[in-house]
Every structure is written in C-alpha cells, then in structure tokens.
Amino acid sequence: MNTRIVFQPKSVLCSLLWFLLVCPLMTFGQQNADASANKKLIANDKTATKTTALPQADTPRPFKLIFEFGGQITSVDGSRPSKFEEYRKVREGAYVRKFSLSANPDASPLFFRFTGREPSERDQRYRLDLGRYGTFRTTFDYTGIPHLYARGARSPFSSSEGGVLTIPDNVQTAFQNATNDQLPALVRNYVSSLPLSTLRVQRHTTDFRQTVNVTENWKLRFNWWNQKKTGTSPLGTGSYERVGTPTGDTFRALSIELPAPVDYLTNQFTFGTSYTRAKWAINADYTFSKFENRIPSLTFDNPFRITDKQATGSGGVFDRMAFARGIFALAPSNEAKTFMISGFIELPHDSRWASALGWSQWEQNEDFLPYTLNSAIVASGLPAGTSVTDVAALPRRSLEGEVDTFSQDHLFTTRVTKSWMFNLHYRMYDYDNVTHHIKFPGYVAFGESFWRTNINTKPIENEPVSFTHQMASAESVWRIADPLDWKFEYKLDVWDRENRQVERSNEHTISTLFSYKPTNRFTGRLSYAYSDRSPLKYNPGILEFNRLRMFDQSKRLRHNASLQWQYHINPQLGLSGTFGYLSDDYDQNFFGLTKYIQAFGSIDLLCNVNDATTFYFNYGRDRYSYSLNQIAKTAVPFDLANRWNRDERDLLDTLGLGVTTYLAKEKLFLDVHYGYSFGRTRLTTVNPNTPSAINVLNAAAYPFPDVKTRLNEFNSDISYQLTPNFAIGTRYIYEPYHLEDYAWDNQQPYQFGQLPATQDGRRFLLLDSRYTGYDAHVWGAYVRFSW
C-alpha cells in the first residue's frame, strides 16, 4: 500500500500548515543574526528549558545529521505465521532504518529536529519539531500502524465500491439446490479453488501541534489530529436453529464470515488559550471532531441461497438465514463539539482552588437502512403501500441522534498545619441522551428471516440511555515523621441512570496509603482500599432471566491492595518491585459474574557495571480469575438443576534480561536482550446438581483443554564506529512463538465434520482468518552516517 500526500494551495487547511510550518523555517537564518541578544532570552525562558534541552556549552552542535540504512533477510516457518507481523512489517532486502536531522545554532534560541524510524515499512514514524524558545513551537507527528489479521484467508466474495460483496449466481444456485448430503462436498470443492487473500487494516495517524507565546503570560495553541483507517477486516454474521432431542437440544450453526471493507476518516481540531499569573491562571479550549465512515453499510450475497425465503415453523424456528442478499449497518458517521474552561487561584493560608467545566454535543444522523432485503418476509404493521425492503416503511428515515454532556471538576486543597494537608474533591459527568424515542412495528429476526412484533410482549423500540455520575471525596495527608506519610480518603460514588436495570447505585470507598522514605536509597508505598457498591433496586426486565445480574450494576464488594518499593543498594545497583491484589465479590445467589480476582507482581534489577556497561533483569507474573454462575436456556421457568459453574484462570509470566556495553575504547557497541512470556488459560466447568435428563445436552458441564502461548525473543545489535562519522553494524532476531488453542488449532474455512456431533455446520462458512505458531529469524546489516 502506497501513501501519497498532496498539498493543494486552494485548501484553507494547507495554507494554515504552510504558514505554521514553512514561515518559521524561512525566518530561521534571519533570526540567527540576533545571537548575542538572544542569549539573555534563553537564560530567562524557564518554560522552554523544561521541554527542550539546550546544547551544552562545551560541545556545541549547530547542525547534526544521522542516517542509517542497510539490508536484511528473513526466515519465517509456520503454517499460518501472520502473528509475526500482526502490528509491524519486517521487510526483506534493502531498507532505511532511521534518520535524524537536527539544528540548534550556538547561542541561538532557534531549534529544529526531524526524525524518522522505519520509513520504508508499514509501521513507520516521523517527527518534526521546530521553534524558537519562548516564542513558538511547531510539532508534527506521523505514525503508521498496520493490523494484519491473516494471510492465506479464503473468501468466496468479490468486492466492489460502496461496500457490496458478491458471489457468482451459479454458486448460490448450486448450493441452494443441493441436498444436505450433497452440500458438504460441493462447498469443500469450491472453497479449495478459491484464491488466497490477505486481511489487513492500515492506520495512518497525523498529529500537528502549534503553540505561540503572545506575551510572557498569554499563550495560544492549536492542534489538528487526523486518523485514516483503510483495508479489510473479518466480520461475522449468523444465527442458529435449535433441534430438540429426548436428552436436550442440538443445533444447526448458520454463519457467514465476511471480508468487511474499512474506510474511516477522523479529524479533530482544537483551539485553545491560556493566561497565567503568579497566583491564578485560566485556560479555554474548543474542540471539533468529525468521524466519517465512507462505507456506511455492507451488502452481501448469501453463499447458500439465490432466492429469498421466510423462516418456517412456529415463530420462525427453522430455515433461518434463508435470504439471498443481506445488509449490515456499519459504524455511523458522527461529529462532536466540546468547549472546556479551567483554572486555579491561590487562596490565603496555603490554600488553592482549581476547577474545570466542560460542555459537549455529539450528533449522529446516518440514514437508516431498510428492515431487510429479504423480500419473502411477510411483515405486519407497515404503512400502506410499503414493503419490508422499503425505507419508506420505517417510522423515521434517520435517528437524528444527539447526546449532550456536561462535566465539572473542583478541587480545594489547604495546608492545615506544617505536617497536615486536607483536600476536598468533587467530580460530575452528566450524559444526557436527547435522541428521539422511536417505536417500530417490528423487526427482522433470526438472520433476516422472520418478522417479530414484540419480544415477550415488549414492543420494539429504542431506549436512549442517560446517566449522571458523581464522585465526592475527602482526603487527609499527614506527615507522621520525616520518613513516613499517611494518607486517608473517603469517597462516595453515585450513579443515576435512565433505561438501565439499576436507576441508582451508591458506592462507598475507604482507602489508606503509607509512604516511607527513611533514606534516599529506599522508598516504599503501601495502599489498601475497600469499596461497597449497592444498587437501591435491581429491575431485571422481561428480557432476562430474573436472577441474572449485570456486573457493572450489581452489588459488589471490592478489596484493592498494592505495594511498591525501590532500593538503591549502591550507586551502581538498584532493585524495585510492585505487587498488587484486587478482588471483586458479587452476590453468589445470582447468575452472571460472581467473582473477579486480579493479582500481579514484578521485580526489576538495574546494574550499571561501569560507565560503559548496563545490565537489567525483570520478572513479572499476572493472574486473572473469573467465576460465573450459568444456567441452560430451556423451557420457562428455568430449572435450577440445569446450572453450572464456570471458572477461568489466566496466567501470564514474563521475563526479560539484557546488557548494553561499549568495548574497544568505546568503538564497539553491543546491545543484547532476551524476552520470554508464557500465557495459560484454564477453564473449569462443574455441575453443582445433576441436570435433568431431558436437558443433559444443554446443561452438562463440558471440559475444555488449556490454551497456552509461549513467546521467546532474542535480539542482538552490534555496531563498530570506524570513524567519528561512520559506523557499521549487524543485528539478529530470533523469535519463536508457540500457540495451543482448541478453538483455532483445527479451524478451517468449512467446519462441517470438525464440529461436535451436537452441531450441524453445513451452512457455516468462515474466512479462516487465523494464525498459528511460528519460528522467525531476521538477519540484517547496516551502515550509519553522522555529520
């Protein structure tokens, strides 16, 4: 994929960029003549020196150029090694590794730096940073990040502009007319003849920032952030049919995985100003953001049907997904406008007040799509003279969605005594969804195959969700003694919601923290927080099993503890560690998530053997545990005998060590590091009771194999400085990755015959967008020029 940037002089935006970028460069030489006068300016400019360091007086470098290029070869083994380049591109052959061009004339307030990394790759980065200390600063960043889903995918679809995926009519006809016994062979033969394709999305991000110091106290700023995403990503669609047996249900899996085109463009502009005095300051910012999806909908052929058909049976239980052409609404285009104002003021008696207020308006008005393209569906309640495939049958042509938000943040802090500080903090976020409430006569369910006018007697309608989130806290910080500080905090967290299961919930949190620093060589922090969240009332609604609870709204008890420490054994050797434990406990009498545990620990060692050699080592372990109560969906009311418990435990161990050193009178540079990570997921399912005989297939606990991943990475980089301006180097990377995943190991584009006997996958067609383990080797050599 090639990226080309074209500047059009008639564009207002490009004219602005020309003024902000080129004009400062044109004045670079003229302003350098003021070197003697500018020395005083640099000395007095405290703000600039915090962000950009000046060159040292004893080694002035008015101009510096570094350019590094070389070549490399790669060797990657594995049946599907897409994971190796999931978020990067490893080029084979000649490549540019990095470059840097900088200028900072001696005794001048002007500075300039232009850098690039991997400019010949998909994962490339550029930065341009220039300005005049105390006057202005211009920064331009560009980042390219790929996301490779899979190479070797097989898609039966041909894509055209406008988000339309087609399949040859003769293929649809053959698949539709085939009997259940004939269909698998037909699909396998067809899939094996499909060409291989690549599923990848490329993200281009541009960030332009401009600041101007109008006076010593008054600053203006401008920011333009742009992101474009293009490519193809997998998108699943499907349904199922339940087939009853004397011992429970079996299922027909109906699914089509689509190569969905992606073409997103986001632009965000921010204009702001700040005015700062010794004892007060004020800031104001206005932001306009616009997201455009240039492919708002996806229309696709059904490989298994050439003609439309409505689902059969009572309530449409059979012959689902029997449409000839389906349609998807993709992410809608939208825009947002935000205004924020903030500031602080110093008060008497070592006190300060700081506040921030923000207002936003979000709007989305993408046109609705028709209910379906399946012309065989018989729908009721539509306007006279319209059909289910006609947008005129909709109660509205578009959503006209609007959300208004208001946020406020206030902090008061005061020093009561020399050793005691007290803080009060209040935050509020109001999300007001003023979108129209729309009632629909029905909707097309079960894979665009059947018309439903209600769900358990509930009408089909949207329910705009609104909420107000408030947090208030009081904090006391007390220096017990010179090495020991103690912080104690109480916080109240209140949610008020509309159109959710819980209208109001309160959460009380008590936390404490001890900081201990007996010497400059040791620092320790120990913290603990206890939280109790209680909904005033939980309404499960008619759509849910009445004993199911949403984890973000249900009652929860939380314990959160952490320990951090650093110990400098001597100036050359240091140790540090972090340990943490978080536990969320939910009511065990209800269904859904009942417990969540997160525990982690790490230890780091850094050793500066001498001025030329540094060694480091780190090890960490993370553990995540989930416990859920689940129940089989059978006849209402649910039979509690048909429940099972599901426990999941994720473990991740990481290890890293490396050394960097200069040898041969600092001409030979060596950088070697090794990283290892091992992840394991273990699923355990248990039936606390014996499932009823007629629901064994639905409710019996099923054992799952462990999922394991191992990643090793060895990276060595050796360079030799032949002359002060010329160096040569070589690097080698070895990266083996091992994956054991029962869900992916045997995955194929056509899964019939690979699924359990209780699942019929005759009409289950995937893209095979997956990856496997691999062994990768990369050898490279490069030269580096500096001037």
Task: Give a summary of the structure in a few sentences.
The protein is mainly β and 787 residues long.
Can you walk through the features of this model?
The chain is mainly beta. Helix content is 7%, strand content 58%. It has seven helices and 36 strands. The protein has a 26-stranded antiparallel beta barrel. A four-stranded mixed sheet has the order 6-7-12-13, with no helix packed on it. The protein has a three-stranded antiparallel sheet with strand order 18-22-21, with no helix packed on it. It starts with 11 loop residues before the first helix and ends with a strand.
Topology:
Elements: H1 12-26, H2 28-32, H3 35-44, H4 46-51, E1 63-77, E2 93-103, E3 110-117, E4 125-132, E5 136-154, E6 158-160, E7 164-166, H5 169-177, H6 183-192, E8 196-213, E9 218-245, E10 248-276, E11 280-293, E12 297-301, E13 325-329, E14 334-347, E15 351-364, E16 401-417, E17 420-433, E18 439-440, E19 443-445, E20 450-452, E21 454-455, E22 458-461, E23 466-481, E24 484-498, E25 504-519, E26 522-535, E27 556-570, E28 573-586, E29 592-610, E30 613-631, E31 643-663, E32 668-686, H7 696-699, E33 707-723, E34 726-740, E35 759-765, E36 774-786
